[in-house]
Write the structure tokens for this entry.
Amino acid sequence: MLSTMEVLELDQTQVMNLLQGLLPQMLLMDTQSTRPGPRIVVGLARSALCKKHPLFRGWEEVLESPVKSDDPFVIISAANQQLLVLLAQNLVAMDREERKCLVHMLESCNLQDQEFPRERMFALFVPLILCEVMQLLHSDVHHAAEAASLAVQVAKLVLPPLEKLILKTGTAVQWSLGNEKLTGTGSLQLLISVVQNVRSGHLEDQHNAFIFVHVLRSLIQTLPPLSTFAASEKPWIEPAQLNEADRDSLALLTTIFDFAARGICRDGSGIAEMQELIKLILQQNFCTSMDRLRFLVYLWARPRGSLFPAAHARALFVGGKILALSLNDTTSDLMIMSGQL
């Protein structure tokens, strides 16, 4: 374990490398022999690096309660949940440049090939941590643009591996755990189940997919309706006319819509979940039927090659459904729009 003096002498690259190796070791995974695990994590929390680095501020105090429990499941789930929340809160408390460096480090943890169960489990936690950071940043109007940009980064982390899982031959993706739907980043049942199955090598694909879809839903639900888009009187969307946060939000929603539309066209599991993502995008991020139609027209009119054909077709299909459901209210607005097109 490094002394305080040795920690202070490390340069930025050395600190980042040390953090990248240390973070997975702070997860609790052993449900059979719980006492050694908590002792190791408590020892890490008391180390010079954890006491000095702002990313771990308060970690030793937070650990005190869960490690006293006699229930191994409580120790594992509560400690890991609190680690996730603490890391997110400490990242938000930093200045933007320091936070940017650490977010990049966390993304590196997620993208690396993970050989060992503990590293694989932490890779699952990375998008949950960053999603929590995005939600906390978004609560402050001064950080809205940074939150929207981070949402795009998080989506880029989860969409490629989720697509691989859905396409994987023979994989029946598990979208819920029994009767429980994941309602927050700290679901105790999910954390326990993930720990057990990652350790045993069972059902890892299913849990990964479940977490990734939860992250996508959280991103969509956190983003507010596009403010400059809603305020515009033009019948079409001009990304250049949107503010920075809305441009990033539009890019994110377009990417998720494209992904979900392709998922709907495939045979196999997850079709209902992909349909739900599209429904959530339209309900959460666009206030009126007219705004939803403007978004769908934007997707349908995107240049060939910018979206998959399935996304163009789905935009046209959903737009037709919206028109059919709100024909009277929307037709007059369309007549006004047609004069401007």
The CA atoms of residues 13 and 323 lie 55 Å apart.
